[in-house]
Model the fold of this input.
Amino acid sequence: MNKQRGLLIVLSGPSGVGKGTVRKELFTQPNTNYEYSISMTTRAPREGEVDGIDYFFKTKEEFEGLIHAGGLLEHAEFVGNYYGTPLAYVNETLDAGRDVFLEIEVQGAAQIRAKAPDALFIFLAPPSLTALQNRLEGRGTEPADVIAKRVATASQELEMMSLYDYVVENDEVQHACDKINAIIKAEHCRRERVEKRYLSMLKGE
Ligand SMILES: Nc1nc2c(ncn2[C@@H]2O[C@H](COP(=O)(O)OP(=O)(O)O)[C@@H](O)[C@H]2O)c(=O)[nH]1
Ligand SMILES: Nc1ncnc2c1ncn2[C@@H]1O[C@H](COP(=O)(O)OP(=O)(O)O)[C@@H](O)[C@H]1O
Done:
């Protein structure tokens, strides 16, 4: 029998909710069987960010070239910059039977839902809008006007929550990680059960 294709896991949510923090924590834990897909962006690197680890940093022209060449699974413009997921890496990894973990904003997640409805969609939600604003201010990576734009965008992003398979509140990082791992495990069990049922139906059992 062919190796089962990996599961595409999409973690999304508003800027500042803690997606990056939760994702990094998930990847420090043993027994994570998923691979992180490093995104492309035209945003300038923040202090300490490394090309090829945090993002593949691209010029606007390079990014637009990738869009036209069909090199991205999804892409979106977020507060003045492009962000996108490399298509070849995702397909190759899934075809090799390994799960792929994307950490992206909501417009990109909606594009993936249209193209790959069998992906697993998890929305990371803040305990409150005030907590979200505090986290963005506390991170200190953006000036006040950019924070204001990100908070304004967050209200629209939160409205997309109901389109996701699961909503996980990021109250405490470890708690959010435990919930995400439990969801992924449960999804694998569900898929195995569906496949078994389908195979036995094909065999006429
Ligand atoms: N659509 C899409 N969004 C992405 C991608 N990579 C990152 N993002 C999202 O773009 C938004 C801005 O990212 P960034 O500037 O790094 O800020 P931060 O995530 O708040 O630290 C965040 O919501 C990211 O999750 C991607 O490949 N595609
Ligand atoms: N559960 C949490 N409780 C308190 N602060 C958090 C939590 N998760 C993340 N943070 C903090 O919030 C800020 C934004 O987190 P980050 O991971 O950069 O968000 P995102 O990637 O969604 O934009 C960071 O300063 C981070 O340390």
Notes: The CA atoms of residues 27 and 118 lie 23 Å apart.
